[in-house]
Amino acid sequence: MKRLLLVTLSAFALVACGNSDGPVAAPPTTAPTTVPPASVLPQANQPQAEAEASRPTVDTGDAEPSGPIDWNTEELPENNSIPDATEPVTCLDMSSSSVTEAVNSLPLVFADSPWVATRMGDPCASFTWVEALPSGATVSSPTHLLFFDNTDYLGTATLEPYGFTSVAAQSADTITVNYRWPLAGDANANPTGGPATIDYQWDGTQVTMIGTLPPEVIG
After folding, report:
1. What SS3 class is residue 218?
2. Is 199 inside a domain boundary?
3. How many other C-beta atoms are found inside a 10 Å radius of the C-beta of residue 153?
4. What total number of domains does the chain contain?
5. Buried-most residue among 32, 81, 107, 153 (CB within 10 A)?
């Protein structure tokens, strides 16, 4: 009887433990792993990727590159030549139409002596001169100096032609002319008066006469 009572009490104790309303410890859980968003992940290879993307591509066709490519080399024209920026030089010819027409436009001094171009300055200078004398002239014959801008006729040094006129010097924009005159007792071909030196300066739009001819020249 006592043994039966002990078995019964043990059964009640087991039932009481199974139906207990007390808190039951939850099974241990593993802390969640936090993954940083993609925007904060280290970008160790990003600059290299951008550099590779911005680097120009070279179409080499089927040929394999034989060495490193120099990306700093400027691209040449298609014919691999450098353009020639040199402008062609226009030279004046004393027999050209520009000179012939200018000389023929001069008023005659002698009815039977047309003007003839006899000498000229640097034919390839942008500002140059041509000397004109009457046909059959002598040393003392009146002389005209005609000025040209390349092949464009600009006009004469003086309105009237004067004897014993000669060009002394020429530069890029200035032509220097000597005017002489005979003194008493001088031979007709060897005047000793003067010279009066006059500069004719070209500024790209007009010729300016620098100096004044003396009365001995203009009479």
Report:
1. helix
2. yes
3. 17
4. 1
5. 153
